[in-house]
Amino acid sequence: MTAPSAPGRTPAWRRLIRQRPMTSFFTLAIALSWIAWIPYILSAHGLGVLDFALPGLASQLLLMLPGAYLGPIFSAFLVTAVADGREGVRRWAGRLFKWRMSWRWYALAVLGVPLALIVCAIPFSGGDIRMPPLMVLAVYLPGLVLQFVTTGIAEEPGWRDFALPRIQPYHGPLRGTLILGVIWGVWHLPLFLTEWGGYPHGTWADPINFTFSCIAISVVMTWVFNRTGESLPIAILLHASVNNFMSIVMGFMFPSIGATHADGTNVILLAFGTAACVLLVATRGRLGYDPAAASPPQGGAPGAEQAGEAHGRPAVGPEPGGDRGGRP
Fold it and tell me: Could you say which of 10, 162, 194, 213 has the lowest number of CB atoms within 10 Å?
């Protein structure tokens, strides 16, 4: 017979992850992505220390995207596997297959997001508004699919699928979303030393404004995630829709805005900041969160990491009139 392994033989890093899964996830997500982005930052696409560059989309797919995959999604998988085992991984992965939602949610993500961005871009356009070429419109849907399977899949299984269900029961939907939004913004910081963030023409205010936009988007994403019964595809589609419109259509439709990263951030901040304010007032800060229907807290000892929340009790009650039936 094989003797059971002694608790003391568990590697220290596994014990740390089990005791502090949220801290472990955020630390790994940031550290692994930042390390993987070093070649991109040092290349001619960034600081120019290394004399190499890749053409067009290849620089994003081969230099930036690996860091995104190595950070949020890989870190979420690793921490979930260590802290919660196979059952935890099954629950985590299961939210990716919650496709059966009302068509209104898909319309909100695919049509509502670009419409809101167009309306909020008008004040920044200086009157220079143009109809995008047919070629741009033709690649819009393929671009949305590409954004879904690249940026969306790389990030949202970490931020929304792993972190949000764990952070809401202990900090509440509003404070938890603010924390998550700030960390999401900080995760992007090294990219402001590359052409993605407008380097070398950006200013110190650009990453600050971008972080505020991440907070605003996170408020909307939390509401969508909660109201769809934790449907990850809708969250991914909403994220992909923002990126797709800004990268494909914005520069052609609003040339003066598409010229700089900062101007685009201002449009996003206005659109999602307005939506966030409306949702916060309409839901009284609950953002559709229903503790009774949400995923149970997972991993580690909540009291050890979530100070101030006794016995893992939810921080807020259900939103009056809320439903989990997938209706907007």
Answer: 10
Which tens digits make up the pLDDT trace of 241-293? 999 999 999 999 999 886 567 889 999 999 999 999 999 999 999 999 998 87
| Predicted confidence band of residue 8 (pLDDT cuts 50, 70, 90) | low
List all residues 6 or more positions away from 290 whose beta carbon is below 8 Å from its beta carbon.
Answer: 226, 318, 319, 322, 324
Does residue 136 or residue 327 have the better pLDDT? Answer: 136
d(CA 208, CA 176): 19
Residue the block writes with tokens 């699919």: 145
DSSP at 248: I
What does the alpha-carbon distance between residue 78 and residue 92 come to, in Å, rounded to a whole number?
A: 11
Question: In the chain, what are the domain boundaries?
Answer: 97-312
Tokens of 322: 């809320």
Radius of gyration (C-alpha) of the chain in whole angstroms: 20
For 298-310, give one letter per residue: b (16+ CB within 10 A) or e. bbbebeebbeebe
CB 257 within 8 Å of CB 284: no
pLDDT digits (tens, 9 = 90+) for 31-40: 999 999 999 9
d(CA 163, CA 76): 8
* Residue 66, phi then psi, degrees to nearest 5: -55, -35
Average pLDDT, the chain: 88
Q: Are 252 and 116 in contact (CB under 8 A)?
A: no
